[in-house]
Specification:
467 residues, Serine Threonine Protein Phosphatase 5, Tetratricopeptide repeat, two-stranded antiparallel sheet, 24 helices, 67% helix
Length: 467
């Protein structure tokens, strides 16, 4: 690494360790404090800046905005200044961050994978690729990326066990359920506190229709995974979903209030998604408890996100919140800024010769923007139409793209929200063909989860087809 500071290297490792384990260390000020200490030790530490920018950019639309450009300009200027002292691996890491900021996240993943061919023990590249594949909805890639590097690691290497946790999540999201279960338990043998492996088992129990087992597992192991503050609210979200399945709305809301909302004021993206999604699912399930105050509290914290476009998956939750709060002015502001985002020209990259001299520029491919054009427009319109009770238009928006929605990122469980909205819209439609389509969507859901009380409640509320 291009630093002569042992302390900078130490804090780099401390930061990366917290990121991989999903557990912040208060003695160092968490991830933010560790990054600050790292760069105070060496302000020109290239991989330190790469680590900082990767954490800030992956999965967060806020930092994809033009206001973040000074960070990227600083990184590129710094890399140019010391380029002769940088290794090929460091230069590839820098370029991956530049592409990431410009929305060309697929290219970033390609660069991280190039690093891993020569350096399969580079945990920074492993982690950034793993998380980025998640936000791209590229689950086979998430699985295979870990499969490629695992044989090169010794089982007594630091963080080795966490690779199995990552592997297990790639397995479960690509529907290799037995492999996912085995890999998750292997990870937990190495590290009982591996909350990402525990998270895999949340999905396993969800997809296998074993909601009671899911509750039992999470409650019995709560002391292990709950200490991992970066992911524990999300595991509690899964716990709340299990109770929602059992029509136990009060318990779901208790978990919402006591566990998931604890970090609300930190304004973290993953918490945003969990909180909004859970309330909206309760709303769809005809929850009898008044949710208005909870919605307004979320809006108070997350209103500053309505201009942060890039990740469709994040944006859809902001719009769900605005609709639930009946904030018409906010919705207009959201759609106006989204339209401006789509019209913005793609950023430019520098073209260099073999001696690293700048010889021209080229436009970046902005994959995230293309996803927004292909899917975001339809999905955002569908959410608005649903709130306006224009159910046929909801079906028209979602039905043509429903088998490609995975490309907006997130997990299969998280994106199920769109299947719920589509199913209810079809059943509520005045169009007879769409009503029949809605019945078939209920059949789909029962085919995957025969014992789903949630789906049976949908069927009972909207159709007499199923008893």
């Amino acid at each position: 690494m291009n630093t002569t500071s042992n302390d900078a290297c130490k804090f780099f490792d401390i930061t990366l360790n917290q990121l991989v384990t999903w557990r912040e260390d208060d003695q160092f000020g968490g991830i933010e404090g560790s990054i600050e200490k790292m760069l105070n030790c060496d302000v020109d530490f290239i991989l330190g800046h790469v680590l900082k920018s990767g954490i800030e950019l992956i999965g967060s639309s806020a930092n994809l905005s033009p206001s973040y450009s000074h960070n990227i300009t600083h990184l590129t200027s710094l890399a140019d200044k010391v380029s002769k002292n940088l290794t090929k691996r460091e230069l590839l890491h820098v370029q991956a961050i530049i592409n990431l900021y410009s929305g060309d996240i697929n290219k970033s993943c390609d660069l991280w994978e190039s690093i891993l061919i020569e350096h399969p023990n580079d945990m920074l590249a492993i982690k950034f690729a793993h998380d980025s594949y998640f936000y791209l909805g590229q689950h086979p890639q998430m699985r295979d990326s870990i499969s490629r590097v695992l044989p090169y690691w010794k089982n007594d290497s630091h963080l080795y066990g966490y690779l199995h946790g990552m592997h297990s999540f790639g397995y479960v999201q690509s529907n290799f359920f037995q492999e996912a279960k085995l890999s998750a338990f292997k990870a937990l043998e190495y590290n009982p506190n591996d909350a990402w492996a525990s998270h895999t088992l949340c999905h396993y129990n969800e997809y296998k229709n074993e909601f009671d087992s899911g509750i039992k597992f999470l409650r019995e192991t709560e002391k292990d995974w709950s200490v991992c503050n970066l992911i524990s609210p999300h595991n509690y979200w899964h716990l709340a979903l299990y109770h929602l399945e059992r029509d136990e709305h009060e318990i779901s809301l208790e978990i919402f209030d006591e566990e998931i909302s604890k970090t609300l004021n930190l304004n973290r993206t993953l918490d945003l998604v969990d909180l909004i999604s859970l309330l909206y699912r309760l709303k769809l399930d005809n929850c009898k408890v008044d949710l208005k105050e909870r919605w307004l509290k979320l809006q108070e914290v997350y209103m500053n996100r309505i201009h942060d476009h890039g990740y469709t998956f994040n944006d859809m939750h902001i719009l769900l919140m605005l609709c639930a709060c009946e904030n018409e002015e906010g919705k207009k502001e959201f759609f106006d800024s989204f339209d401006c985002y789509l019209k913005e020209p793609n950023r430019e990259d520098l073209i260099r010769d073999s001696c690293n001299n700048i010889i021209g520029t080229k436009k970046f491919e902005n994959y995230l923007k293309e996803v927004n054009r292909k899917f975001g427009v339809n999905l955002f319109d569908a959410i608005s139409y649903f709130e306006q009770k224009e159910y046929e238009k909801v079906v028209d928006c979602i039905k043509p793209i429903r088998y490609e929605i995975f490309k907006i990122g997130g997990s299969n469980a998280q994106r199920d929200l769109f299947h719920l909205i589509l199913t209810q819209s079809a059943l509520l439609s005045n169009n007879l063909e769409y009503k029949k389509f809605g019945i078939n969507l209920v059949n789909e859901r029962l085919g995957l989860k025969p014992n789903s009380n949630l789906t049976k409640r949908i069927s009972n509320r909207f159709t007499n087809y199923h008893s």
